[in-house]
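Sequence in, structure out.
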Amino acid sequence: MTTRSSAPVRQSSVRAHNLALVLHTVANSTDRLSRAGVAAATGLTRATVSALVDDLVAGGLLAELDPPPRTGAGRPAVGLAISAAGPAGLGFEINIDYLAACVVDLTGAVRQRFVEHADQRPAGSQVSLAALGRLAARARLAAEADGLTVAGAALAVPGLVAGDGLIRVAPNLGWQDVDAPALLRSVPELADLPISVDNEANLAALGELRVTGGDPTFLYVSGEIGIGAGLVLDGELYRGVRGWSGEIGHVTVFPDGRPCRCGARGCLEQYAGQEALAGDEPLAASALGIALAAVVNLLDVPVIVLGGAYAPLFAELQPGIEEELSRRVLTSGLAPVVLRPAALGADAAMRGAADTVIRAVRDDPAAWLRR
C-alpha cells in the first residue's frame, strides 16, 4: 500500500496567498478600509497586514488615501484603495473593418483608447498585425507617459485560437495558422510584453461580466461583420473542449440559403452580420431570434446580451428577436429570456482583453512584485 506524502507549504506560497487576499479584500470592499479593517476582515494579524500593505503600496498596487477630517480623539486611520498609478493592461483588437487598442489601469478605468477604421481583408495578416502593433505601441507609450506600467497585453480576434495564441482560422479575414504574438513582438515597443490571444466574443463576454457584475450566467453575442458568442456560466467563461465554442455566426438558420465564407450555406452571419444588417433589419432580427432560440432550448441560458453593432440598434432589433424567442423557445411561457444591450458597446472586446491582464495581476500580486 502506498501513501501520498504531503509536501510542506513554502513560506513564499503563504505570502503570495496573503498578498492576494489583502488586495482582493481592499478591491471588493464598499468601504474605505484601513489596515486595521483589512486585518479584521481577513483574520490576519495587524503586523502581517501592515507588512503586506507596505509591499503592495511600494509595488503600485495599493494607494493610501488621506484620512477623513478628525472628529474625535485619536488619530484617524489612513484608508486604502486600488492604485490607479501602477500596473495596467494593454488590450487590442483586430476585426474585419477596424483596429483598436486601449490601456486599462488596475481600477478598471480606460486611460488610453485608439481606433483606426479600415477594411483588413485585403491587407493580409502580416500587414494588419504590423499596423495593429504600431497602434498598440502608441497606446503603451501614451500610458507610460501618464505614469503607468504596462504589465502585459492581450489580443482579441474574430476566429478560432489555439492555447499557444496561434490563430487557427479567422474565416472573415481569410487567415489560417497565424502566429499573432510573434508578429506583434516584431514591433519594438511590444517585444518585452507577454501577449495572449483569444476570441473577441470570449473577451467581450469577460469584459461585460466584470463591468456589470450582475448576471453570472449569460450568452454574449458580438455582432460585427462576423458574429461570435461568449458563454458565461456561473461567472466563468465556457470555452468548450478545444477552446473553440461560441461560433454562433455559423449556425444554420435557413437551410440551402446564402453561401457563407466558411463553405456552408444559410449561416446566421449571412443574414445578421453587420453588412447584411444594414440592408434588412427585420430579416436580421428574425434570423437572430431563430439562432438564439436554438441556443436557449439547448442550454437554458436566462440572459442574452447583444454587443458590437447590435448594441446601438438594440431597440430596433429587440421586437423581432423576442417574437422568435417567444415562438420557438419551449419554456418561453414559464421563464422568458431576458434580452439586453451590452454595457460596453463596441469597446467590449478590447476592454475585456485589457482586463485579462489586470485580473492576472490582481489574482497573483506576488508575481507582479517579483517583476
